[in-house]
Amino acid sequence: MNRIAKMGLLKSALKWKCPRCGEGELFTSRNPYKKGEMMEMHSHCEHCGLRYEREAGFFYGAMYVSYMLNIALFVNAVLIWYLFVEDLVDWRIYIGAYVLITILLVPLIYRFSRSIWLYMMIKYEPEKRGER
Ligand SMILES: [Zn+2]
After folding, report:
1. 92, 81 in Cβ contact below 8 A?
2. What is the SS3 assignment for the chain?
3. pLDDT one-digit tens code per residue, 49-90
4. Per-residue pLDDT, 90
5. Given a cut of 90, is residue 14 above it in pLDDT?
6. CB 14 within 8 A of CB 1
7. Residue 9: its pLDDT value, please?
8. Residue 49 C-alpha to ligand 1 middle, in angstroms?
9. Whether the Cβ atoms of residue 26 and residue 118 lie closer than 8 Å to each other
10. Centre of ligand 1 from the C-alpha of residue 103, in Å
11. How far is the CA of 94 from the centre of ligand 1 (A)?
């Protein structure tokens, strides 16, 4: 796969599109903060018919992606602290802001981790149709 095609895949992963066709939506609502639909996923892709949950417990793997995203967030927060903020803000306020931002990002991290996990496991085959 060439570089441009890989960039297209990254883009559709970040837009929460089907990993096989890049067209169908993964989640029932585009808004991750919509009450009651925060975590609701379609069972199948409405465009190519791919079944998203490959097997029972398939999305447990997304927890590892979520863990990696949270580690990246934490490392960035520590770097920002030492490089820019250390002399400006009290550390308790900084930690409070970090915790608040992390809580606010939960729906986004949940969605990105599921999307990235699907993209890691499913090959891009835009012509293919059916559940598998
Ligand atoms: Zn699809």
Report:
1. no
2. CCHHHHHHHHHHHHCCECCCCCCCECECCCCCCCCCCCCCECCECCCCCCECCCCCCHHHHHHHHHHHHHHHHHHHHHHHHHHHHCCCCCHHHHHHHHHHHHHHCHHHHHHHHHHHHHHHHCCCCCCCCCCC
3. 999 999 999 999 999 999 999 999 999 999 999 999 988 999
4. 93
5. no
6. no
7. 79
8. 6
9. yes
10. 31
11. 42
Q: What residue spans define the domains of the chain? A: 3-121
Q: Which two tokens stand for residue 34?
A: 């919509």
Q: Ligand 1 centre from 38 Cα, in Å?
A: 21
Q: How far is CA 74 from CA 21, 70, 109, 111, 116, in A?
A: 33, 6, 13, 18, 19
Token pair of 128, please? 């293919």
pLDDT at 107 > cutoff 70: yes
> 13 Cβ partners below 8 Å, 6+ apart?
19, 115, 116, 118, 119
Taking the C-alpha atoms of residue 114 and residue 26, their distance in angstroms, rounded to an integer, is 9
